[in-house]
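Quick review question:
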């Protein structure tokens, strides 16, 4: 059974709903995005996570920004920018958070950099942002899952990018992903999660067979 992260939540009721439906992680975006939350909003959202684990998503944060987010009590920091292995290690020791690094995948070569991040705790394999995009993630674009054929993950990992309730079972079967992450695929209006889609995604992922 694959684990599920619902990313880009902004509304406490939706956070509670996703957690009740069985989301393992709920993600909050602290970067420019239609899904961005403030520190004050995140403090309120954290009250609704139930049994789900909250993940703070940041893009090239400064020390002060990362420390302010970590101080809210997030156990996991997902880095979605151009953070180097050294910066990821630095942010880990600075915040005390587990670090997940997002890796943009377009070709098999992109997987090579993963070995240069020995200090991180997890990986999120996501599609690269479309040409000209100024936002680092949440574009609803998938990469070619066959790139992962024969790849052995050195860390716990999640598959992301363009997943939907309709394709998540196929994605898990094709890649063997132990976890999946979704943002746009559970929205009907950009930036607003939809209960029916959140429920359908979690059910489809949890019911799926890993190869
Ligand atoms: O979701 C955002 O708005 C976002 C903004 C800036 C950096 C990262 C962002 N999201 C990162 C995620 O973990 C998304 O869930 C991931 O990119 C997959 O998104 P989608 O293809 O929309 O499901």
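Suggested answer, residue by residue:
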């Amino acid at each position: 059974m694959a684990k599920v992260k619902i990313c880009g939540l902004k509304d406490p009721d939706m956070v509670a709903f996703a957690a009740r439906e069985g989301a393992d992680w709920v993600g909050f975006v602290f970067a420019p995005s239609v899904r961005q939350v403030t520190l004050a909003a995140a403090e309120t959202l954290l009250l609704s996570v139930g049994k789900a684990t909250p993940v703070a998503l940041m893009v090239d944060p400064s020390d002060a920004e990362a420390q302010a987010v970590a101080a809210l009590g997030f156990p996991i920091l997902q880095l979605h920018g151009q953070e180097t292995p050294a910066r990821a290690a630095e942010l880990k020791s600075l915040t005390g958070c587990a670090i997940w690094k997002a890796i943009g995948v377009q070709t098999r070569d992109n997987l090579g950099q993963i070995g240069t991040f020995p200090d991180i705790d997890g990986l999120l394999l996501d599609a690269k942002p479309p040409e000209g995009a100024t936002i680092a993630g949440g574009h609803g674009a998938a990469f070619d899952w066959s790139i992962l054929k024969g790849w052995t993950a050195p860390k716990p990992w999640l598959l992301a990018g363009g997943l939907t309730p309709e394709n998540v079972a196929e994605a898990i079967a094709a890649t063997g992903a132990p976890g999946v992450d979704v943002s746009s695929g559970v929205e009907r209006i950009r930036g607003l999660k939809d209960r029916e889609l959140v429920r359908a995604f979690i059910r489809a992922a949890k019911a799926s067979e890993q190869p």
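Why it works: The chain has six helices and ten strands. Strands lie at 3-7, 25-29, 53-58, 76-79, 98-105, 122-127, 157-159, 179-182, 187-189, 192-193.
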